[in-house]
Structures are given as structure tokens and as C-alpha cells.
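Render MYG1 protein-like protein in 3D.
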Amino acid sequence: MSVLRQLLVRRSNIPSARTFARVPRFYTLSAMATENPAKKMKLDGPLIGTHSGHFHADEALAVSMLRLLPTYAESPLVRTRDPALLSTCHTVVDVGAEYDAARHRYDHHQREFGTVFPGHNTKLSSAGLVYMHFGKDIIQHVTGLPAGQDLDILFEKIYTDFIEAFDANDNGVNALAPKDLEAANLTKKFEDRGFSIASVVNRYNYAPQGTPKEEQTKEQQQAEEDARFTKASQFVGEQFFLELTDRANAWLPARNAVKQAYESRLQHDPKGRVLVLPEGMPWADHLYSLEKESPIPDGVAPQVLYVLFPESSEPDSKWRIRAVSKENSGFENRKDLPDPWKGVRDEELSNVSGIPGGVFVHAAGFIGGNQTFDGALAMAKAACDF
């Protein structure tokens, strides 16, 4: 059994993504008006409040994260801007102009608000506030991780890779400042405004209504708006759940496996440019961290250029060779596989490369394959020196 498999077995109590289907449904007070009394009696959790009207990704996520906790699993939700109604709520997010964790008030719109997640610079939204105060409890409840280093690492990782973008989006912060792009004379190659989770949540604001708005009472309009918010919150909550469980099930246990492979990389290439993994796993983040943290011996390359891993656990599995991307650069690699190999397959690839067993090299040069480990390693070494 490989190192990663052993670690995964130890974490077998961590739920799969299917577990999200068992998370309790979302309730709003307007929707409850149509429920029977027996169902109403079950909603005995603390009342959650957020604002009515146009909704955004941050409060949709904040509400869904709260509902992953046993305390709020059966909580009803009221969407209103009425201070009197909000004052009856146990927990209020994204409305009320008040941030007071002791009173469970998590708004960020007040002028004096400037709270950030530890070690970050982005001002928090309601999503970041809820995550900062409840995130570790949520992670422990969903994954079963005990308090300790792994929990702390995962808590930070989920904020960095998932939550912070919600905070930035709601506070009008761009990943890259437009003025910096303009100064560098850079323009987008395509439009991606509709590609984010925030844009998907926004679409729920305009979802088709069952009855024309002008034919509805105010109560019906509010109920329909609440129903759209419920769908949006369920959607974004599932994305959070999938992110969390994937990081817990695969990313976190891969740390030790990647570390072992990194420490033994000189066995495969004297200059340390090739990393060999026992199986496919999330390796990039861990590799970047190891390169920054580890001393580099004399004569060893400062960076790994290619990563090898088997396609499956079968003894005769084919092997993949993956070019390492430049950190935080998307599709740009430290060193592409050689141009003459790009887009070439099978026997033709073997002839062009001079290495038997060639399977393919992607036309973009970021990944390729060989029938055997020895063949993939030979391809990696040849590519390093090409």
C-alpha cells in the first residue's frame, strides 16, 4: 500500500462529497408559512438573519457554512432589513452595521470596519467573518480532524484558496489592479466575468419566476426571492463542502508523500529536476513550499521541472510526465516538454524522442506519457537537457 493510501485509510472518517446530500435543507421564514405545523416544530435552531433584496455570494456562503454546524443545522432564516426583526435573531450576517462576535453580529459594511483574516490583507466580508470565527469548528465537524497542526494548515489553506476571493469580490478588490495592468500594457485574452462563483450566485437573483411579479403579493414576492436565495446558498455551500472534503481527503495527506518524494528525488536525477510520485495526488502546492523551505545542496537544481506518476494502481500502468507550472502563473510552465514532441503520439513520438514506449505529448507541452516508468523517466531527463 502506498504512503498516500495509508494516510487516506487513516482519514477514512472524513466524509465523501456525497455526504453533502445529508446536510439539512435550508429554511426561510417565508417558506415556512407553507409548511405544516409538524415541520415547523422541528426548526428549533437559533434564528439566522440576513438582508432581503439583491443577494451576493458572501452572505449566501456565510449562511451555508453556519448550517454545516450542528447548532445551526435546523435553524430557520429570516431575510429582512427591519432592525426590529433582526434584533430577534440569534445570529445576523451581512446586515445591521455591526460586528460583534460576542453577540453573533457579522456585518462588514460599517465605515470603521477593517478586520482581515490573520496573515492576509483583504478586508473580510460576511463570509470571511463567519469562517474566521466558525471555520475550525466547521472543519472539525465535517472532517473529524482533531485540533493541531493539520487543522491549522487546512484552516489557512481553505481561506487562502477559497474564502478570500469571496471577501475580495464583495469589497471590490481585484486580484490584479486595473491600473497595474494598464501600466504594463496588458489586456485580457478573453472575458471571464461570468466564470466565477460570484457570477453564478448573482444569476439566481434573476431566475425566472413562476408567476409574473406584478401578479404577486408582496409576501409572495418575498417568498420567491427567499427561494432563489436558498438555491444560491445551497449551491455555494456545496462548493465549499467539496473544496473542504477534497482538501482534507487528498491535499492534506499528500503533504507527507510529496515530501518523501522530494527528499529522494536525487535517486532519479542527480540534479534533482525530476520528482517521482507513487500515484497521482495534489502535489503542486506542497512542491512549491518544499522548494522554498528546503536547503538546496551544491550541484542540485533549485527547482523541479517534471513530475512523474502512474496513471493507475495496476502493476503494468502507463506513466505520466507533467511539466511543473510556474507558481501562481496558471498554464505557464517552468519548462515545457520539447517542441518537437508536442502533439505527437505513439510510435511517431518514440521515433522523434528516441525513447521507446511513447504514448503522447499534449500539443501545449505540459503533459505526456509513456508505457513504462523507465520510459517516462528517460523522457523527463531528455526534456530537462533539451
